[in-house]
Design a protein that fits this description.
The structure holds two protein chains of two kinds.
Chain A (H helix, E strand, L loop, with lengths): L6 E4 L6 H14 L6 H14 L3 E3 L2 E2 L2 E4 L6 E14 L5 E13 L5 H13 L3 H9 L3 H9 L4
Helix pairs in contact in A: 1-2
Chain B lengths: L1 E7 L6 H15 L3 E8 L2 E3 L4 H6 L2 E6 L13 E5 L1 H6 L1 H12 L1
Parallel strand pairs in B: 1-2, 1-4, 4-5
Antiparallel strand pairs in B: 2-3
Helix pairs in contact in B: 1-4
Classes of the chains: A alpha/beta, B alpha/beta.
Chain lengths: 150, 102
């Protein structure tokens, strides 16, 4: 579920959180994790409207579950130009690291859910946050993911 | 102080576990005994037993959806918070718990 083709460091400026979510969904589609982008994209935006997925430290983890997702994936993008991540309750934060997560609606792998939980917990740990902030390249960012620790 | 709690969110794949970790770290930092149950996509885990519920001074519910088996906490002091807010500011939840039993 971690795939270096879904990891990137971007210099491009994205105008909104919707734009980066859509961009990462396209990358997931190009790599055959998603069938139909819109079905998945809508599930992510719906989730985003429930509560913002900006979680502090400049990180956001938009996620959605949809039948458009074939296999669980985590697309990860470091933004050299941060974006304003506004939530629907009026709050906002500058985000420069986005993890877009996709999970199939049925036939989920428990193992994948376990790894997502592990990623989530690590995002609350100083040590992991520091590694992420030090990662400057696609390869370094990918290594942070595959070296996740319990 | 003995703190127990439950975390849960609409999809149960990320925030549930972040809030658990955040509360655990913040609680331990302030020298409390803390155990947080997750009710996420993998079902209930790290389940709080009836005994542990009885021993608890405060119950923290960091939830964004319906949760199960709350009757364990009948008669207990309960703090209910938004799961996103707990992730951004876990220490606040712990301080609220401390203030409640003062």
């Amino acid at each position: 579920m971690f795939d270096i083709n879904l990891v990137n460091v971007e210099n491009k400026k994205f105008e909104s959180k919707e734009a980066i979510i859509h961009h990462l969904a396209e990358v997931a589609k190009e790599n055959n994790y998603i069938g139909n982008i819109e079905g998945y994209y809508n599930s992510v935006i719906l989730r985003e409207k429930q509560t913002s997925t900006s979680v502090g430290h400049g990180i956001a983890i938009p996620h959605g579950e949809s039948n458009s997702v074939g296999q669980t994936f985590v697309a990860c993008c470091k933004l050299n130009k941060g974006i304003l991540w506004s939530d629907y309750e009026g709050g906002e934060a500058i985000v420069n690291l986005v993890f877009l997560i996709g999970v199939p609606q049925s036939q989920r792998s428990r193992e994948h859910l376990r790894i997502l939980a592990l990623l989530s917990k690590n995002l609350m740990k100083e040590e992991f946050l520091q590694k992420l902030s030090q990662a400057k390249t696609k390869q370094e960012l990918y290594e942070c993911l595959i070296q996740l620790k319990q | 102080m003995n703190i127990v709690g439950i975390t849960a969110c609409p999809t149960g794949i990320a925030h549930t576990y972040m809030a658990q970790e955040a509360l655990k770290n913040a609680g331990e930092k302030r020298n409390h005994n803390i155990k947080i149950e997750t009710q996420g996509a993998m079902g209930p885990e790290n389940i709080i037993t009836k005994d542990e519920a009885e021993q608890a001074d405060v119950v923290i519910l960091a939830v964004g959806c319906a949760v199960e088996n709350l009757e364990r906490f009948d008669g207990k002091q309960i703090i209910e918070l938004d799961v996103g807010e707990v992730i951004r500011n876990p220490e606040k939840a712990i301080i609220m718990a401390e203030n409640l039993v003062k």
